[in-house]
Amino acid sequence: MIAGAAVAGLVFGIALDGGSTDGPSGPATEAKLSAEGWVACSQVMAEGEVVSVEEVPEAGRVLLTVAVTDWFKPATGEKEARFDVVDPAKDGAYPRWKPGEHLLLVIDRDPTAYVTSYRGDDIAQVRRSIERALPGAAGRECTDGGRGDV
Fold first, then answer.
1. What angle do CA 35, 77, 144 make, to 5 degrees?
2. How far, in Å, CA of 5 to CA of 28, rounded?
3. Does 16 score more than 50 pLDDT?
């Protein structure tokens, strides 16, 4: 549970400040996650309202339906999108989303990763960070998880 929160906090901090992180240093942490790398390594970045969260046959996963108001990555998509994602409540890591909740979602390319979701006042700041990073992420491939040169 703590590790999941730390990862979400790490991504949030990186997206907002363009690449600086706090924490231990050393060979494993010298390659910092860049905002452009974060965008390049994300499968979906979208903002909207939760329509439903449904159980699926596979344990630990849910089908999340969102009425999307803004697509960032990809640039366009369905007005109502469905995502088969890790259930944020599967290990008690995060509360499950609720219908009517307004979120900015970041879905990783790794289907086993938790979705990072932003709420309330955080949305505007994260949206600005994504919009600033999109041009630098265009055409990049995610070859190293977004660390260093992608």
1. 30
2. 19
3. no
pLDDT given for residue 144 in this prediction: 62
Q: Compute the C-alpha angle 61/65/68, nearest 5°.
A: 135
The residues, any chain, with a CB within 8 Å of residue 17's CB and separated by 6 or more, are: none
Strands 61-73 and 102-108: unpaired
| C-alpha dihedral sign at 77, 72, 103, 7 | positive
Closest CA to 150 of 43, 8, 45, 33: 33
Contact 106, 71 (CB under 8 A): no
As beta bridge partners, residue 63 has 54, 84
